[in-house]
Amino acid sequence: MHKRSGGDVVQSAFSIGSAEFKNRVLVASGTFGYGDECTDAVDIAQLGGVVTKSLSMKPRDGNPPPRIVETTGGMLNSIGLANIGVHRFIAEKMPFLRTVDVTLIVNIAASTVDEYCAVLDLLEGEEGIDGYEINISCPNVKEGGLNFGTNCQMTSEITRRLRARTKRPLFIKLTPNVTHIADFARAAADEGADAVSVMNTLIGMAINARTRRPILSTVTGGLSGPAVKPVALAKVYEASRAVKIPVIGIGGITNGVDAIEFLLAGATAVQVGTANFLDPAAGVRVAREMASFCEEQKVSDMSTLVAALDARTGVSVLDSWL
Ligand code: SIN
After folding, report:
1. What range does the domain containing 229 cover?
2. For position 241, which CATH number holds?
3. Which single residue of 4, 194, 258, 273 has CA 20 to 30 Å from 161?
4. Range in 55-64, 87-96, 160-169, 310-319 the model is least confident about
5. 182 occurs within a structural domain
6. Atom of ligand 1 nearest to the CA of 67
7. Is residue 12 one of the residues assigned to a domain?
8. Looking at the 3D structure of the chain, how many domains does it have?
9. Pocket lining: 222 vs ligand 1, CB cutoff 6 Å
10. What are the tens digits of pLDDT across the range 232-248?
11. How far, in Å, CA of 211 to CA of 97, rounded?
């Protein structure tokens, strides 16, 4: 809840399965470490939730540098799922995370379906985890990643195998690098996912014309930041009309009005990602700005904005795909 002037409140809390979120802004995986690094700069208890960097079974160094480059209105990354591995996460990060009053969603990445299951099984033993986000959409690795996320059958299988192992909420993070994201949202929903996160990064590349070389060591990477927001809105619009489970909107959100646009398009909540690199407190600010917008618009309950887009004046080509 956010206080409104005059003592009223804007209702912004929501829940997905057993996970309760104080407000509708989470910080996106890969943009906020493991939640313990930014505590000098931001009170993470004011966030709706923290999604950790993707965890694999073994630690990963990721791709060689250069692996990040700034582009017009965006950021191209090819990190390659660098992470400390699930064992170190449990030993070194969970003790702190358990002390913070914030909803914790642990993101899992893997090269095989068995690895997803094994990582989740280890995390199941840990108190203080509120849910999982399953990364089937990293564009920067040869094994797993997009091989899974661009294949509807794999999306179904991974969701089914993980659903059978946990009662905690399961979010499946989808890639925009497909023709019809609605099919992938349906595949996840039909196998019992509690939500889909829409979207991971768009495949992109940057070139140095003078050297005639790609800037990233892996040639291509994943584009995020304000440049991708219009794509993300359309993907959220499409996915949310295909499924009944919540859609978490991600893509280029930098302020509260951006986030409200995602709710109108059909998102139940949003994740702030690339903006955290400029300001680790961006998520908290976005949540505050959403509440101010609601106050200004005399909206007392944010849930009334979800999928409240007035599209009477237009018929999207997406409609023929649903
Ligand atoms: C990366 O680690 O390469 C980025 C993660 C992702 O796009 O899923």
Report:
1. 2-62+81-204+223-321
2. 3.20.20.70
3. 273
4. 310-319
5. yes
6. 3
7. yes
8. 1
9. yes
10. 999 999 999 999 999 99
11. 45
Q: What is the model's pLDDT at position 38? A: 86
Whether residue 135 has its Cβ less than 6 Å from ligand 1: yes
Q: Check pocket membership of 30 for ligand 1, CB cut-off 6 A.
A: yes
What's the 302 CA to ligand 1 centre distance in angstroms? 30
Alpha helices in the chain (DSSP H): 86-88, 94-97, 113-124, 146-149, 152-163, 181-190, 229-242, 256-265, 275-278, 282-296
β-strand 14-16 against 131-135: which pairing, if any?
Answer: unpaired
135 Cα–ligand 1 center, Å: 9
Q: Verify whether residue 138 is a known catalytic residue.
A: yes
Closest atom of ligand 1 to 80 CA is 3
Q: For residue range 169-208, what is the model confidence (pLDDT) as tens digits? A: 999 999 999 999 999 999 999 999 999 999 999 999 999 9
Which among 38, 138, 152, 294 is annotated as catalytic?
138
In a domain, 209, yes or no: no
